[in-house]
Design brief:
Distance between the termini: 51 Å
Strand content: 15-25%
Number of strands: 11
Radius of gyration: 23 Å
CATH class of the largest domain: Alpha Beta
Structural class: alpha/beta
CATH superfamily of the largest domain: Periplasmic binding protein-like II
């Protein structure tokens, strides 16, 4: 098998996996569509398995495709590492893929990214948004160089580097906060709980905390972004669990208030990387600078 596999087949596979369309994959690679189709057909013939389901709306991975994807990402990554080592680059270049929660990026990571991209213009820093499970899966599948998660996964195959201790609070409008002060936290049972969804670690943690103090979440609403959650809650529509740093302006203006009961929680955010991932020169430098920036803060 090894003598028949070519790097361009792996590139076509990953492009099709991520773009979910032969035409978009071809545009991304600078090929005509028939070339991508041929590469995938050749790869499937070599592997002896069908890697994609073809549908009118696009493609989806088969079970064999899911299994193959982890090795495809590793292959491309190792080739990139080899190329960089052979060129003996003394300046960072190439692509770094990292996934984090939106709230962490906006409130904690953005200044570092702005400074890093200014100092390393040749690096293509691909930052993606995801839930805790999305981030962990991307690192485990070798899809990502790094992830930033709000708690230590405590897995033997994952290295965890603590960055900071983040305080998380329940927040609501002034009216709802006043009702909690006057009548107690039980009134929240009649309010919507707003979050990024049940796959969000903050959501599951909030439900557990509320349950422990006798408050049962009856109605929950999922919104896709932190800004939408803040705007919706400030209108008096329910309450949310949000990083305290993310609502400093709203607290000063009075549009949001921290609910007046012992509701603060903290999460230790950290950088994760697969234990077996071979980091290239650029990734090692990025990791070092990121960790140093949080230590200095």
């Amino acid at each position: 098998m090894i003598d028949a596999l070519e790097g361009r087949f792996f590139q076509a596979f990953i492009a099709l996996l991520e773009e979910k369309s032969f035409s978009r994959a071809a545009d991304r690679l600078g090929y005509v569509q028939s070339t991508v189709t041929t590469h995938i057909q050749q790869l499937e013939r070599i592997i002896g398995q069908k890697l994609f389901h073809r549908y009118p709306r696009g493609v989806e991975l088969t079970e064999a495709g899911h299994a193959f994807s982890k090795y495809a990402y590793q292959y491309v990554h190792l080739v990139e590492c080899l190329s960089e080592r052979m060129k003996e680059l003394d300046q960072p270049s190439g692509t770094i893929r990292i996934r984090t929660q939106e709230s962490f990026f906006l409130t904690r990571m953005l200044p570092f990214v702005q400074e890093y991209t200014k100092n390393a213009p040749a690096v293509n820093l691909r930052i993606e948004q995801g839930t805790y499970q999305d981030i962990l899966k991307g690192v485990l599948d070798y899809e990502l160089d790094f992830g930033i998660v709000p708690q230590n996964p405590n897995r033997q195959d994952i290295l965890f580097y603590p960055l900071l201790d983040e305080t998380i609070v329940f927040a609501a409008s002034e009216d709802i906060a006043r009702k909690v002060r006057d009548s107690g936290g039980q009134i929240l049972q009649d309010q919507q709980f707003i979050s990024n969804g049940t796959s969000c670690l903050y959501h599951t943690s909030a439900v557990d905390v509320l349950k422990n103090i006798g408050i049962r979440v009856k109605d929950a609403l999922e919104l896709p972004s932190l800004e939408m959650i803040k705007q919706y809650v400030s209108c008096g529509k329910g309450f949310a669990l949000i990083p305290e740093i993310a609502i400093q302006n709203e607290l000063k203006k009075g549009t949001l208030q921290i609910l007046p009961f012992d509701s603060k929680m903290s999460f230790i955010h950290g950088l994760i990387v697969h234990k077996n991932r071979e980091l290239n020169f650029t990734a090692k430098q990025f990791q070092s600078e990121l960790l140093s920036s949080f230590v200095s803060d």
